[in-house]
Specification:
By secondary structure, this protein is mainly beta. Helices cover 0% and strands 62% of the residues.
């Protein structure tokens, strides 16, 4: 089994910063892609950012230049540094990973979600 634990959400004023973390643990052989999605108050899900095992990244146009995704392969952890936050960034953020387990199963897993609220 593989588990994901997210942390780092909260309430921040416009222009502020937050850092999200998502740690994977369990029977892991390799984590292929790690990413962050968000569900907006209008219940739309969108990809925020993703990073492959080799390092290439992909960002939603709305966060380019403000958010940075990174990963620590030794810790099986992905981070999302969010700067210059705007009220429209308010959402529940979910970690998502594509993982190969020690028994060579390929799984796509979601974290529990963490609320980010940007408001004055």
């Amino acid at each position: 089994q593989v588990q994901l634990v997210e942390s780092g959400g909260g309430l921040v004023q416009p222009g502020g910063s937050l850092r999200l973390s998502c740690a994977a643990s369990g029977s892991i052989s390799k984590i292929n892609v790690m990413g962050w999605y968000r569900h907006t108050p209008e219940e739309q899900r969108e990809l925020v950012a993703a990073i492959t095992s080799g390092g290439p990244t992909n960002y939603a146009d709305s966060v380019k230049g403000r958010f940075t995704i990174s990963r620590d392969n030794a810790k099986n952890t992905v981070y999302l540094q969010m700067n210059s936050l705007k009220p429209e960034d308010t959402a529940v953020y979910y970690c998502n990973i594509d993982v190969t387990t020690a028994t060579l199963r390929r799984l796509n897993l979601w974290g529990q979600g963490t609320q980010v609220t940007v408001s004055s």
